[in-house]
Amino acid sequence: MSYLIRCMIFVAGIMSIATPAFALEPCKKGVKYIDISAGIAEPFPAQPPDSESLNADGSVKEQGWHNLKRAERPLRIICYYGDGEKETIDLPANIDVCLRYPGRVVCK
Prior knowledge:
By secondary structure, this protein is mainly β. It is built from one helix and eight strands. 14% of the residues lie in helices and 37% in strands. The protein has a four-stranded antiparallel sheet with strand order 2-1-5-6, with no helix packed on it. It has a four-stranded antiparallel sheet with strand order 3-4-7-8, with no helix packed on it.
């Protein structure tokens, strides 16, 4: 087998086991606040954020939920918007962190 073919097979093997990093924005822009719930109990038990930073005026700069891979499944995010609209989204199993910033949510 030629050197070029062996190199191509090696690179293809490495690329197939590498997991790409990605970010998901489950809520539409303009989200006011969110709840993250785990499990199948009704009503869904909310998971409190485990980190929070505030602006000088006391408003929330960032809220964070970490180690979500350890949470009971299914894991849902409930997005609340200013017009009273509410949206529930099931999060994929590979999501480990969700961060809420003013007007947007990023999960990765």
